[in-house]
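Input C-alpha cells:
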C-alpha cells in the first residue's frame, strides 16, 4: 500500500516554529503541522509548465 502522507524533514512551522512536524497529504493537497494543527492547501500541479 502506498503512503499518502509524508514528513517534510528539515522544515519549520511558520506558526509554532516547531521543526520536523510538517506533513504533506498528497491526495488532499494539504500540509499540516502535527504540533499545532496549522494547515495550508497546496495547489495540485504547482510548478508544472503550461
Amino acid at each position: 500500500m502506498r503512503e499518502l502522507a509524508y514528513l517534510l524533514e528539515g522544515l519549520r512551522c511558520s506558526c509554532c516554529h516547531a521543526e520536523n512536524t510538517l506533513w504533506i497529504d498528497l491526495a488532499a493537497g494539504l500540509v499540516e503541522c502535527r504540533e499545532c494543527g496549522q494547515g495550508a492547501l497546496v495547489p495540485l500541479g504547482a510548478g508544472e509548465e503550461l
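The two ends are 32 Å apart (CA to CA). DSSP finds no helices and four strands in the chain.
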